[in-house]
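Re: your question from the hallway

Yes, I did run it. Sequences:
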Amino acid sequence: MQLNAKIPEGKLQEKWARYKATCKLVNPNNKKKLDIIVVGTGLAGSAAAASFAELGYNVKSFCFQDTPRRAHSVAAQGGVNAAKNYQNDGDSVYRMFYDTLKGGDFRSREGNVYRLAECSLSLIDQAVAQGVPFAREYGGYLSNRSFGGVQVKRTFYARGQTGQQLLLGAYSALSRQVAAGKVKLFTRHEMLDLVMIDGKARGVIVRNLDTGELERHAAHAVVLATGGYGKIYYLSTLAMGCNGSAIWRAHKKGAGLASASWTQIHPTSLPQLGAYQSKLTLMSESLRNDGRIWVPKKENETRRPVDIPEEERDYYLERRYPAFGNLAPRDISSRAAKERIDAGYGVGPQRNAVYLDFSHSIREYGIDIIRERYGNLFSMYQKITGINAYETPMMISPAAHFSMGGLWVDYELMTTIPGLYAIGECNFSDHGANRLGANSLLQACVDGYFILPYTIGNYLADELKTGKISTDRPEFEQAEKQVVEQLTRLTTINGNRTATDYHKELGALLYDKCGLQRTKEGLEEAITRIRALRADFWKNLKVPGGHQNVNSEVEKAGRVADYLELAELMCWDALTRDESCGAHFREEYQTPEGEALRQDDKFQFVSVWEYAGPDQDPILNKEHLEFEEIKPAVRSYK
Amino acid sequence: MVDYQLDDVNPEMSFLEMLDTLNEQLVLKGEPPIEFDHDCREGICGQCGLFINGRAHGPLAATTTCQLHMRSFEDGDTIYVEPFRAKAFPIIKDLKINRSALDRIIQAGGFISTHTGDAPEANSIPIPHHVAEQAFDSAACIGCGACVATCKNSSAALFTGAKVSHLVILPQGKAEAATRVVQMVDQMEKEAFGNCTNTKACEVECPQGISADDILRMNFEYNKAVLLVDGK
Amino acid sequence: MPTLSFLSNSISRKNLMALTGLFLCLFLVIHLAGNLQLLLPPERAQTQYNFYSQLLSHNYLIKLVSYALYLSILIHALDALILTVQNWRANGAQGYVYDRRRTASAWYSRNMGLLGSLIFVFLVIHLKDFWFQYKFGVVPMDAEGHKDIYPIVVAAYSELWYVLVYVVSLLILGFHLWHGFASAFQSLGLYHSRYGKWVKYFGWFYTIVITGGFILIPLWVYFFNY
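Structure:
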C-alpha cells in the first residue's frame, strides 16, 4: 500500500494557501460534465454536496435516513470551535492548532490540523450567513464558551443544539441545490458496495430501503461522508442507524483504514440500566463547567447521595487533575471514572455510574442561573430517568462516542483508492488519538465546505476525458452480484439468534477488551472470540422476511456482519500499538500515576490497515508523522 | 390493527425499546419485524414518530416517541400504536411513513441563498440577543411531522411557519422573505396538506414547543408579500 | 411573483374566511344595536323598531351593504365547505383507529364547520320568519305608515320553544365567535407576540357582549313584554 500524504511544501502557515493557489481547476463549463456521488448527508456530506452543486458539478446524494436533516450530526450539543478570538483572550489559529494537536496526543498531522484551525474562521461566517442562530451577547455580537482541554473561549454554540442548527444550515444549502436540479437526493438508500473500474472509484451499489431493490449509480468520484462507527459497541451515544458498512466495504475494496481502534469514550453519558437498553444518551460536556464529579469514599455505598456528608465524598477529578479539575479532557475523565467504578465505588442500581453534582453551583449562583444555563439538559435528564437533577445529583457514566479512526486520507482527503474521498468523522483525520470537544462539527464542516470542493477539482480536472460512465459495465454487474449473494446468505441462514443479539455480545466484548483500557492478553483473547462469534453469526443468524422488500432486520444484519469484521481490525490496531496515547490506553504503558505513556521513538506513526482477504490477518502499513513546527511533549492537564 | 402481547416490560424501558423487545421476539418466531422509524433516540433527529394511544408521540407533551418511557403507562394496559396519518405522509410499511413532502417545502424556499465562500465576517451583522433567541425558538423544529399528525386538518402550517419565521426574524433572511414565503406556502398546497384553522393542537404536541405564533407570522409575511411587495 | 388569487392556497382561502367573517362580526354589532330597541317599553319599541326596519330596507347605501352581507354569508359558507372538504382529503384515506387528538385543542375550535352549519340552519329559519315575512309577506302598517313588524317579533318570542331555539342557536354562534374572532386576525397574520393576546381578549369580550345581547332580547320579550 502506497501512503503519500501529499502535504504541500513550505511553512505550516502557507501550505494550504499554496495548495489552493496551485491545484488544478476545472473550467466552469466543464463541471457540468462531471458527476460526483456523496454518501451521507450529515454536516460533511451535505456541505460537500451543496458546495459541489454550487460549483456546477452534478451531484447524487445518498442517506439511509428518511431525510438528510436527520443525519447524526444533528445530535451534537455543545458547540463548534473557531479561532476568531472574539473574546480577546489570546486565541489564534496557531494556539488552536496546538491545542488540537496536543489534545490528540501528538498523533495527527501538523499540516491537516493547522488547516483545520485556519478554516475554522470562515466556517463561522458561512454558518451565520446561512442563518444559524448562534448565541449572541446583548449587543448582538457572537458569544463563546469554553470546552474541555483548552484555556480560551472559542466555542460557538446555539443552546444545546449546535449540531442541529449547523446541520439545518447545510441541509438548507443542500435543499437549495436539490431545487436547482443540481443535486439528486436519494433518501432511505444505503450504500452496500463501492464499484471500482480500472483501480478508480466509479460508483456505488445502493439498496433502496423502501423497496429492497438494488440500484447502481456511477460517477467520476465517490465521496464517503458516512460518519463514525462507535455504534459497533452497541451501547453508544450514536444513533441506531449509524454504521461502519460503507467505509468497511470500501476498505475491503482497497481503501486503507487508519487507527481503527481509537474511539472516544465520552465521560458524561447516562448509565446503562438494563439489558434491553439500546443507546446511551449523551449529556453535554458543558455540564462539567458547573457540575462537580464525585463518588462516595466508601465502597458499595447505600446511602442516598444527598445524605453522604461532604468529607465522605471523593471528587476524584479535582483530586487528580487540580489545574483542569472537572474540565479535564474526555479520555482522561472517562478513564478516571472507570477506575473508580472498577474499584467498587460506582453508584446507581448497577453500580456503573458516578455523580455529577450541581448542588454547589446552585448554592453559589442560585437555581435560576443553573436552569438558564442547562435547563434543557436537566429536563432531558428528567424525561429519560424520571429524576429531578436540581434536587439530587445526576448519575453519569462513560459511553462510546466518536471514532477518531477511519479511512486513511491524504492532505486532499482522498483515500488510498483514487477517486474515493472520505470526509468528516468517517476519515481518520485531524483529531489524533483524542478529539477535543466541539472540534468534530468543525472538522465535518471544514472538510465539506472548504477543503474537498478545492481538492476534488485537482482530481476531476483529469477526468474530463472519461465521459459518462455506464452502469452496465461488468464491474457494476459483479459488485451487484456480490451484494445480492451476501443479502441472500444473510436471509437464508435461518438460525436461532437475531442480529441485535450478536451486536450486543460483540459490543460488550469490544467495550471490555478494546474500550477505555486495553491489554495485550485481552486483545488477543478478543480477536479469538470475535472470530468465533463471526463464525457463529454466519451459522446461526435469523433474518425473516427476505431482502426484496422493506426489512429492517436485513439492514441490521448487514451492518452487524461488517462490525464483526471491523471489530477484529480494531483489536489488531490496538494490539500492535505498544504505547498509550489519548483514547488508546494500554495498561502496560502508563506512568506510575496512571497516565498515558507514549512511545514516540517507536510509534510516532499512523497505523494504516490493508485488507488481506476473508479471515486473513490484516496488513499493517505506517505513515510516519513528521513534526516540523512543534515538539511532541508529555500531555499534562495536572 | 394487530394485537401483540408483551410480557416483562420494564418501566425504565423507552417506548422504542419496548418495540425492540417485541421485534426480537417476532424475529425469533420467524416473523418479519414491525417496521417503525427511529434513529437518534434522544429526541433531536425527528425520525421517530408514532401515534400512541390516540396522541402524536404519546401521552406526554413536548416529548418525542423515543423519549417516552414505559413508566408513563400502567401494567396491563393495552396500547394503541399507529403511524402518523395524513395524505401527504404515505405509509411505507407498518408504522413507517414517507415525510419527504416536508423536505420539498424546504426545497421550495426554506433557505438563505448564500453559497460557500460568499459569507461576510460573522460579526459584521450584529443580531441582538433576543432576536437570535427568538429565531432559535423557531429554528429548533426537528421536522418530525407531529404537528401534521395531530392537526385535524393535516396542515403543515406549523412546520412551514417555523421555517419562515426562523429565516425572516434574522437580518440575513430578510432579503428573500417575500419569495420564500410565497413559494413555501404554494408548495405546502401542492403537497396536499390541509388548511390551518388555528386550533393550535400542533403547538401542544410539538416536541420542541414551537409556538403557533409562527403560523401567524407566516400568514402576515405571506399577505405582506402579496399585497405590498412588487412582483418580479 | 404572487397574484391575488382568492382560492389558490391555504392562506388566501383563510384570508377570505377571515375577511368575510370579520365583516359579519361587524354586521352583528349593527344588528344588535338595532335590535336592542326591542328592550324599550312596548309602545315605544313598536314605533321605533318599525321605523328602524323601514330605514334599513329603503336606504340605498344600506341596501348595498346588505348585498355585501348576503354575499359574505355565502362566500363564508362556501369557502368553509371547500376548506372542510380539502381538510378531509388531507387526512388521507384512513383515519386514526384510536383518536384522542381532542385532548390537544378546544372542541369548538375543532368544530367550526359544524357550528357554522348549525348557524346557517338557524339563519334560514331566522330569515324565513322575519326577513322574508317583512320583504315578501303581508305585513300590516303601523300608525306611522311603516310595516308593523314589531308584533310579529313579539309573537314569535312569546313561544317558549321558539325562545329556546334562539337561545341555543345564539350559544352556538357564541362558540363560533369565541374561536372565530381571534382566529380571523390570526389567519390574516395580524398578530403581535406581546399585543396579540389583546385581540384574543377583545374577541372574548366581543363574543360575550354580542351573544349575551342577542340572547337577552327573546328572553326579555318572553318574560317582560307579555
